[in-house]
Write a structure and sequence with these properties.
With 353 residues, the chain is mainly alpha-helical. Helices cover 64% and strands 11% of the residues. α1 packs across α10, α4 runs antiparallel to α8 and α6 crosses α7. The chain is globular and about 55 Å long.
């Protein structure tokens, strides 16, 4: 069990590292490729790569036990694809107009967008700690959105990245609604359909199709930084759970900054380091909030009770469904309980636990 958790930790960190490679390498490739065309082949790389990965795992007998998507999930699937067309185009356009280190940090704004959409549209509860982290991320994003050198001029590239984060924030909530279905199928649909749509848009905008060598490089980057990264993330969740996996994955923006300095040779201004400090602080808060994540579980407890009606004694089977609110932290089994009991039998029998 301990060995499995160590391996899962490696998968979670690897998922973060592979995604972090996306921004600085995209920055280099964008010197020779249009932003929309770049986004198209990145997503096609993820979709085609995961499709081949699915065929490979099926051939060796490792198949997903999750159900495929149905018509019921169609509205969320369509919204997911449309938003996945807009978001990477905005991201690539932003990368071409600002530093990749800025973009890496600004990706944290996706957390803010996701949380606000979850609250305003889907009615999810946001903790006080998360609100404070959101405030810090927003403040850091505002700092990164100004040109620096004392001039209060908005950085166009940063604003485009924030737009991408907003699209992904909505898309994350749409994807969450279908997350109980096959993750491989979701990635394939996201990648192939979003990639093809972006490719058509790129042609309409007059962007040139890059050379085969560049196409191959972008497809590989898309498979690694989008497809394979998501796959490792899901593999990590099996043994670590969603909370701890998210906590480890939160290092991705900071790995992106490190890769940007190593691969692109960027040396940001002092305002960047101020924003970095705020982002680090907010990430620590987000990580702690995630690890102490509260979640509901529904359990069924079957009890048999003997009842006497005059001289007649018989037994009723009661099924009590309880909604438990658990707080798991560091493997402890301390938890809070909120019980709602439903008696599945033919006559009223009020019960309180």
């Amino acid at each position: 069990m301990l060995k499995a958790k160590k391996l899962a930790t490696v998968f979670a960190i690897l998922a973060a590292a592979l995604y972090a490679l996306n921004i600085p390498i995209s920055k280099l490739l964008l010197q020779n490729v249009g932003a929309t065309m770049m986004a198209a082949f990145l997503y096609l790389g993820a979709g085609i790569g995961m499709l081949l990965y699915h065929f490979f795992t099926s051939a060796v007998g490792k198949t997903s036990n999750k159900e495929p998507l149905t018509k019921k999930e169609l509205p969320y699937t369509v919204a997911m694809v449309v938003l996945d067309v807009a978001a990477p185009i905005l991201l690539m356009a932003g990368i071409s107009r600002t530093t990749s280190a800025n973009v890496s940090l600004l990706n944290n704004f996706e957390i803010v967008a996701t949380s606000l959409v979850a609250l305003l549209i889907f009615g999810e509860v946001i903790s006080k700690r998360l609100w404070f982290a959101i405030l810090l991320v927003t403040a850091a994003s505002m700092i990164l959105s100004f040109e620096g050198t004392g001039a209060f001029v908005f950085n166009e590239g940063s604003l485009l990245v924030l737009g991408a984060c907003l699209c992904w924030g909505v898309e994350n909530n749409c994807t969450k609604m279908i997350s109980h279905k096959s993750s491989e199928e979701i990635v394939v649909i996201k990648g192939c359909f979003s990639g093809l749509a972006s490719f058509l848009i790129a042609l309409l905008l007059g962007e040139k199709v890059p050379d085969l060598s560049l196409i191959a490089a972008i497809l590989l980057l898309g498979f690694v930084s989008y497809g394979l990264s998501i796959n490792f993330y899901i593999m990590a969740q099996k043994d670590l759970g969603a909370a701890k996996t998210s906590a480890y994955y939160s290092i991705a923006p900071f790995l992106g900054v490190a890769f940007s300095m190593l691969l692109v040779g960027e040396r940001p201004e002092w305002s960047f380091y101020l924003a970095l400090a705020l982002m680090v602080f907010s990430t620590v808060i987000l990580t702690k909030d995630t690890v102490e994540l509260q979640h509901n579980h529904e359990h069924e407890h079957i009890h048999c009770h003997a009842h006497a009606h005059g001289n007649l004694i018989h037994t009723h089977e009661h099924i009590h469904r309880h909604s438990h609110l658990h707080i798991h932290e560091d493997g402890t089994d301390s938890h809070l309980h909120s019980h709602v009991d439903l008696q599945d039998h033919n006559h009223p029998h009020p019960t309180r636990i």
